[in-house]
Amino acid sequence: MTIVITGATGHLGRLTIQSLLAKGVPASEIVGLGRQVDKIADLGVTVKQVAYEDPEALRAAFEGADKLLFISGSEAGNRLAQHRNVVDAAQAANVGLIVYTSAPKADTTDMKLAAEHKTTEQWIKDTGLPYVFLRNNWYVENYSVEQALAHGLFGAAGDGKISGSPRADYAEAAAAVLTTDGHEGKVYELGGEAFTLTELAAEIARQSGKPVTYTDLGEEKFREMLVGVGLPEAFAAILADVDRAASQGALFVSREDLEKLLGRPATPLATSIKAELAAVQG
């Protein structure tokens, strides 16, 4: 059995490898691909420096793969060329199963962030290879507790519920799919305990003992704020649109799929905030 993981040197990739090892998968059966290979050199798995922009290297790395965890590229708005390379290489190598980390409700949402994922899902289907789509919801870590303590939370999500969970939950779910049978052709909408940004701010305030509030700016003003703090215009527009969509329910899903794969309850928001506060406070 060989499990290949793209984007393995990122946060989600490393956590997934750790979860696979914890489930008893031998390190010799795991191949991690990425740019900064030093980030996972300590895990004992096979590591290869491979970028999404290198189709020949991708194909060579995929040869003999029984299962491929295709972690989507991190550059929103620039993913399609990278994803095309991965899908083509997977098809050429005839991998046994493609497990792709997608976006919430990718095939039905109007959220701009999901457009590249919708296209990638279709490309994967078109290969004819067995697949599983893991539609990961928002990571709790996307909201900086440190910045919230210093400046408060800002956004445009209104009272929209966000079914967030820490990266470790999504990594454990991916590891479960990679190590058990019966998932081929499944689409999992993965999300944890739902919260509004007002509720998130209140939880940070409760645990820290410091005042933390959420200010809803609306989509356009939130985009302007993001540009003002240094984000590229295109990326700021995507993030502002995520909040706009969240205000309309785009990031709310049942916990059922995630908890089924985990075999336990999703990590509570309070637990995630406790861990983030501990990291900030040392």
UniProtKB/TrEMBL annotation:
Residues 7-180 form the NAD(P)-binding domain. It comes from the Bacteria. InterPro entries: NAD(P)-bd_dom, NAD(P)-bd_dom_sf, NmrA-type_oxidoreductase. It holds the Pfam family NAD_binding_10. This is SDR family oxidoreductase. It comes from Paractinoplanes pyxinae.
